[in-house]
Design a protein that fits this description.
The complex is a heterotrimer of chains A (about 140), B (about 400) and C (about 750). By secondary structure, chain A is an alpha+beta fold. Chain A folds into two domains: about 60 residues; about 70 residues. Chain A contains three helices and seven strands. The longest helix of chain C is centred in the C-terminal third of the chain and has 14 residues. Classes of the chains: A alpha+beta (about 140), B alpha+beta (about 400), C alpha+beta (about 750). The complex binds flavin-adenine dinucleotide.
């Protein structure tokens, strides 16, 4: 979990989040929308102000996510062994659930897979991921 | 021939009569023990035990057989200590081999909070007659064969409470010994008959409906394990009981060499080696209420992993079978016994994951209640009305499993 | 042919390519058990061995290439436990998803797989013969199998069980001799080119097997018994009964065909709707002729006489028959005996009983294999975890977190708080932000306090009650300038509290936004008489007042500072973005170095708060802790309208009080936490927290004190740390600085 991400964490009405998620590409290079719940969205790699069409929205900068980009082969190797649920087939795609016994967020782009985890679990997750990174090398 | 077959017990099945002084619903350990004690201690023999399947087919024949009195509150320590002592005498009393074996029950400590819990357990045990000591890691390393003192690098073994009287017995044999004793004294026990209704009149029990016809009686004991709420529903009594599945597993048989009964709350399992040599493992209940007796893989998967972490030598033992029971869980993890608002409808429930050890004392007390009409002091705190009276008996940290 | 070699009782055994351990042994004229019919299909216990230290391995199902050391199964007694110093082996898991899992790659399994594929469904096929043994169908359905390299777990939409049939084994006197084969087993052995001497066949043996054995036909008559060859445990003759009486046919090998039974253990294990059973696995279980004599259960060594014996003593139900004799409880899980137990009962006039319940695991695997891929739950680590460890802290798991218990010198840690200034990592506290049109309404109903009177910039200590009026958490509510609220909870309490809030507010139809920031926010408590001075050095000249809070920048790091106190000294809780925890900690440590600043761990914190009489939910509270029992009535405001637990509290308040959490003072060191207390000879409760208090120079404790003889004792007896009786006096709380002057300074 070598990378730490800055992000913007938003809790707002689902409609408002739908709009942001749809236009996420316009928010800047490398911004990844991770929709945790209908009313919760994390924009990875996004900092600064953002328009949310909900006057009660909670919008906070959130730098507590860590992650690791895996190439397709390593990701397949790892997920095959450590993930018990079906990975979405479309790309890009977001998914979340237990992997290697810990709650993670997954972002699949065309080539690679980003595994994101809360900092408080990142070291333990890294230890579980390490053998697969080793094997891939 | 194997030396463990039941060579002595003789069961004489009865035909149901039209009426009884007492009808016990459920041929599990508690039902059988109640009937046994009614007949043998109080001479009340016009008693029927009605079992919908076979005797011991509920939790009493699918538990991990741990007998211990190391509970966390005085009321429970006293009660279970009584039961533990009755167990020690049960072979002599019934002249039947129940494979009773004292191995000592160790609850391991892996955190400072755990140390507090186990020290508290030892203290309250000592105060109320159960033999339990807090022991330091050196003792554990010396006394428990094959233990890894720092499993997974995150669960250092920092001490344990050692309950010297912790024991096991063969569940089926306990059920049969009690059934046989009751039958011999004149109790009628029937299998494959289900109680389908309870008849009341003017707030009093007058009989039960069964798949084999109606029976008249003024006293019904509901001892139906995981079906307690359904039974109580029949007379409009609401019980604060939820039914949760509980799983266990055994390995194949190996030479008997591992004496202690080990529990670790943090690693979430307990294990002992049975008299037959199987390694017997269990854990806590499934968090979701259910009547299902099907096994999920997650349970055995994580328990096996933790077990091997604590006892690496067990890594190559082969698992033979896993199974599930449905436990009647009370909110305070303490049994619910005695009278109910419906006259003549008595209950013995809330046995959850810990009622096997209570079979002798539970039956003894229920029988005394029926015979004398007065709730014995030993079980008075366990009365159903404790919830309404705000006198619950919180014993969560020490009950939990087995 | 490359072949392989394994050692067996000190001898090297050569195996040919494709050999199972059993075939290789038979090739060398050996077998791992004394006798008993062989099925070569994993259905019986008659080829058990110990392979590379693992006992109860079926030699017929184990590839010879995979093993190095094989030992026979003990003929008497049980296999030994592995040596206690044996290390664990690591097993890997191969997880897959499929629409359909087909178990069994025979004719019907292959057809089922083809059909499913034709429908465009993703199919996984497993077959024991191909080295992948399914051991269970779990809730899901979720199929777990053993492979030569580890375990395989397949999550599927549905399962097809095409496990075929097993061959019924003979139960007659002498059936424990060696040299007896089922037809399929015989063919496999003969095809492998293994010499079987003089072969005869009895029963229903197919032509193919007969021709493989170069036999013209089967011996006439019905199987009666096997007789040993002189001085050997091998069969020497088979005796059959014909119209003309018994005939003994001499032989070295007997092929016995008694028909087949569905191999349906997995089928019976599946839940309703999860599995389709096809082929022979779906056929009706036969009732073979009830034997008169012989060993019916080879695993538990149960004879027909024993069945008779227990049956006559009332063990008439199939489960009682099984449990009393232990027939069917061994390694093969009834593979051999189950058909006979049923026919035995039918023969005795009982109704035909269903097979006993099938439970995983169908074929066995080791604890290491079954535990493969599982992860033990870990405790969360704050952003300062590494730093604590570098500082030499002894770490402890508590409330789902790793926390520093002590940095090595609890007395110095304590002194720093009481006399100078100290830092404590409180990032573990639960923290949430709540906003939305109904945020205040939600809080009003969640908490037993009047939230409307918490002004912006202020905060209040609150209890969380459940419907029964029992305290299950505590924390703070703080109202911000923008109308949103910050909520704190105990360490480890946040996940439960989050569900609690969401469930209730949804039920009330409230429109709220809730963000759980427990895992994204760090918090450092700066506490001690010189805490304000330290903050000033960090650039904070206008810190929040007592029970106030506000946004600040400390050493360039944005913080929300709460002024409150758990330690009894001036305290500022600095909530900040977690990624800057280390930076903030280091800055404060440096700035405070000459003020005597050092960190304190949990052990010290617990002592400090005990001096102040602050409770810890979980340690000092119990399942049934009402505010009254905790003497926290002051935290419940019945004028605040409807709140969860209100009715229960009102109701239980009318019931006489039975116990309460009180402070105890001892002249010397206090009893241990958990110690029992007595009033005269009466039980009077137990200690929940205890410590030596340097500040009041006494042993202090919180304890559940019970009503005894109509009143609450003012003095109690306990056992001291050295086993001697000591007396505690009920004391008003807090023990230290009762006016709270220090915290508000
Ligand atoms: C996996 C597992 C492990 C356990 N481990 C331990 C342990 O180590 N130590 C310990 O002390 N306890 C343990 N327990 C708990 C213990 O098994 C039970 O608490 C105890 O057996 C309860 O006995 P019982 O007689 O109340 O219920 P049961 O044994 O369940 O008997 C109830 C009987 O009532 C019958 N019945 C239900 N409805 C009707 C009806 N309508 N008509 C007629 N009959 C009916 C059922 O068929 C059943 O036979 C464990 C339980 C499980 C499931």
């Amino acid at each position: 979990m070598r990378e730490r991400f800055d992000s913007t964490h938003i809790v707002a009405l689902p409609d408002a989040l739908d709009r942001i998620e749809m236009d996420a590409l316009d928010l800047g290079d490398g911004v990844i929308p991770m929709r945790f719940a209908p009313d919760e969205l994390v924009l990875l790699n996004h900092t600064g102000p953002i328009d949310v069409d909900d006057s009660h929205a909670i919008v906070v900068p959130d730098g507590s996510w860590r992650g690791e980009w895996l190439d397709a082969d390593t990701a397949a190797l790892f997920l095959r062994a450590e993930c018990a649920w079906s990975i979405p087939e479309r790309r890009p795609a977001f998914a979340q659930g237990l992997v290697a016994g810990l709650p993670v967020k997954l972002w699949f782009d065309q080539q690679r897979t980003l595994i994101v985890i809360a900092h408080v679990r990142a070291d333990d997750f890294a230890a579980r991921l390490a053998p697969y990174l080793e094997a891939a090398r | 021939m194997n030396e463990f077959w039941e060579a002595k017990v003789k069961l004489r099945w009865a035909e149901l009569a039209d009426s009884y002084d007492v009808v016990v619903i459920g041929g599990g350990g508690h039902g059988l023990s109640t009937a046994y004690h009614l007949a043998l201690r109080h001479g009340i023999t016009k008693v029927a035990v009605i079992e919908k399947s076979y005797i011991g087919g509920g939790n009493s024949g699918r538990n991990t057989t741990v007998i211990r009195a190391n509970y966390g509150i005085p009321e429970a320590v006293r009660f279970y200590q009584r039961s533990l002592e009755l167990y020690e005498n049960l072979e002599a009393e019934t002249d039947r081999w129940i494979m009773h074996r004292v191995g000592g029950n160790w609850w391991l400590v892996h955190t400072e909070a755990g140390r507090r819990t186990e020290q508290a357990r030892a203290a309250v045990n000592q105060a109320f007659g159960a033999k339990t000591d807090f022991v330091e890691p050196e003792v554990i390393a010396r006394e428990i064969p094959g233990i890894n003192m720092n499993p997974l690098g995150q669960f250092p073994v920092m001490g344990a409470s050692l309950h010297h009287g912790g024991a096991t017995a063969r569940h089926d044999r306990v059920n049969w010994a009690l059934a046989e004793g009751a039958m011999r004294a004149g109790v009628d026990i029937v299998q494959d008959v289900e109680v389908t209704g309870i008849n009341t009149s003017g707030g009093k029990v007058v009989g039960v409906e069964t798949t084999a016809g109606p029976i008249a009686t003024e006293t019904v004991v509901s001892a139906v394990g995981g079906h307690a709420t359904r039974m109580a529903d029949m007379v409009g009594v609401r019980l604060p009981i939820r039914t949760h599945p509980l799983q266990a597993f055994v390995t194949n048989h190996y030479e008997r060499k591992f004496d202690p009964i080990i529990a670790s709350a943090d690693l979430g399992f307990y294990v002992s080696q049975t008299a037959r040599g199987e390694m017997l493992g269990g854990a806590h209940i499934d968090p979701e209420p259910s009547y299902s007796r099907r096994a999920g893989h997650h349970f055995v998967n994580s328990i096996a992993r933790n077990m091997v972490a604590l006892f690496p030598f067990m890594s190559g033992l082969r698992v033979l079978r896993q199974w599930t029971g449905t436990c009647d869980m009370s909110p305070d993890y303490t049994p619910v016994m005695g009278v109910t608002p419906v006259n003549g409808f008595l209950i013995t429930t809330g046995w959850g994951t810990w009622g096997f050890k209570a079979i002798p004392a539970g039956g003894e007390a229920m029988a005394q209640l029926i015979a004398t009409g007065e709730t014995p002091e030993l079980i008075a705190p366990f009365a159903l009305d404790r919830f309404a009276r705000d006198r619950t008996l919180a014993d969560r940290s020490s009950s939990g499993t087995h | 042919m490359a072949g392989s070699t394994f050692s067996y009782e000190g001898t090297a055994i050569d195996a040919q390519d494709g050999d199972s351990v059993l075939l290789a042994l038979l090739r060398s004229g050996r077998r791992p058990t004394e006798g008993g019919p062989l099925c070569l299909a994993g259905d019986c216990p008659n080829c058990l061995c110990t392979a590379d230290g693992v006992s109860y391995v079926r030699a017929c199902q184990t590839a010879a290439t995979g093993v190095t050391d094989v030992a026979p199964h003990p003929t008497t007694g049980e296999p030994p436990l592995p040596p206690f110093d044996e290390t664990a082996v690591d097993i890997t898991v191969d997880r897959r998803q499929a629409d359909v899992v087909v178990i069994g790659h025979g004719r019907s399994g292959t057809a089922a797989a083809e059909d499913a594929r034709a429908e465009g469904r993703a199919v996984e096929v497993v077959d024991a013969g191909e080295g992948v043994e399914a051991i269970g169908i779990y809730v899901g359905p979720h199929v777990v199998a053993r492979t030569p390299n580890g375990t395989r777990e397949i999550h599927a939409e549905s399962v097809v069980v095409a496990t075929g049939s097993s061959e019924i084994q003979p139960v007659v006197p002498g059936s424990g001799l060696a040299g007896i084969y089922t037809p399929r087993a015989a063919r496999t052995v003969l095809d492998a080119g293994i010499e079987l001497g003089t072969i005869v066949a009895v029963g229903d043996v197919d032509d193919e097997t007969l021709s493989a054995a170069s036999l013209d036909g089967v011996v006439a008559g019905e199987l009666v018994r096997f007789e040993p060859a002189a001085g050997s445990s091998n069969v020497g003759a088979v005796v059959t009964k014909t119209a003309d009486g018994e005939i003994a046919t001499p032989c070295d090998t007997v092929i016995v065909g008694l028909g087949r039974a569905p191999r349906d253990m997995l089928a019976r294990m599946a839940g309703p709707g999860e599995a389709t059973i096809v082929g022979s696995a779906a056929t009706a279980a036969p009732l073979p002729q009830c034997p008169n004599d012989g060993v019916v259960c080879p695993c538990s060594n149960v004879t027909m006489q024993q069945l008779d014996d227990v049956y006559d003593r009332g063990f008439t139900h199939i489960e009682l028959l099984k449990r009393s004799t232990l027939a069917g409880t061994g390694t093969c899980q009834g593979g051999v005996c189950l058909p006979y137990l049923r026919s035995f009962l039918a023969d005795r006039g009982e109704s035909i009983q269903p097979a006993f319940t099938a439970r995983p695991v169908a074929r066995q695997l080791t604890l290491a294999e079954i535990g493969a891929g599982a992860h033990t739950s870990t405790a969360a680590r704050t952003a300062l975890d590494g730093l604590h460890r570098k500082l030499g802290a002894q770490m402890d798991r508590m409330g789902g977190w790793w926390r520093p218990w002590t940095y090595g010198d609890p007395d110095a840690e304590y002194a720093a708080v009481r006399e100078a200034v100290s830092l404590c990592d409180v990032s573990t506290l639960g923290l949430m932000t709540i906003s939305g049109p109904d945020a205040e309404a939600t809080l009003q109903r969640l908490y037993p306090t009047d939230v409307s009177t918490i002004r912006a910039g202020r905060s209040r200590y609150v209890l969380m009650l459940d419907e029964r009026g029992y305290v299950f958490d505590d924390g703070m509510i703080a109202r911000r300038d923008d109308g949103t609220f910050l909520l704190t909870f105990t360490s480890g309490g946040a996940s439960m509290a989050e569900m609690w809030i969401r469930d209730w507010s949804a039920g009330w139809g409230h429109d709220i936004r809730l963000l759980n920031q427990t895992f994204s926010t760090g918090a450092i408590n700066v506490t001690g008489p010189r805490a304000t001075e330290l903050l000033t050095r960090a650039g904070i000249t206008d810190p929040p007042p007592w029970l106030g809070h506000g946004k600040y920048e400390v050493a360039g790091i944005p913080c929300t500072i709460f002024r409150l106190s758990f330690t009894g000294e001036v305290s500022y809780e600095l909530h900040h973005p977690l990624e800057r925890s280390v930076e903030l900690w280091n800055a404060l440590s440096e700035l405070g170095a000459d003020l005597g600043c050092r960190p304190h761990g949990l052990e010290t914190l617990l002592r400090l708060r005990l001096e102040k009489g602050h409770i810890i939910v979980g340690q000092d509270t119990d399942y049934d802790s009402t505010p009254r029992r905790l003497r926290h009535e002051w935290a419940v405001n019945f004028n605040s309208g409807e709140f969860i637990g209100r009715h229960a509290v009102l109701r239980t308040d009318r019931i006489p009080l039975d116990k309460q959490l009180l402070g105890l003072r001892f002249d010397g060191p206090p009893p241990i936490e958990g110690a029992v207390i007595w009033s005269g000879d009466e039980y009077a409760g137990a200690i929940t927290s205890a410590a030596w208090s340097p500040s009041v120079e006494a042993g202090i404790a919180l304890a559940w004190v019970y009503e005894v003889d109509g009143g609450f004792p003012t003095e109690v007896r306990a056992t001291g740390p050295d086993g001697e009786p000591i007396t505690g006096t009920v004391t008003s709380l807090p023990f230290f600085d009762p006016e709270g002057a220090r915290a508000r300074a």
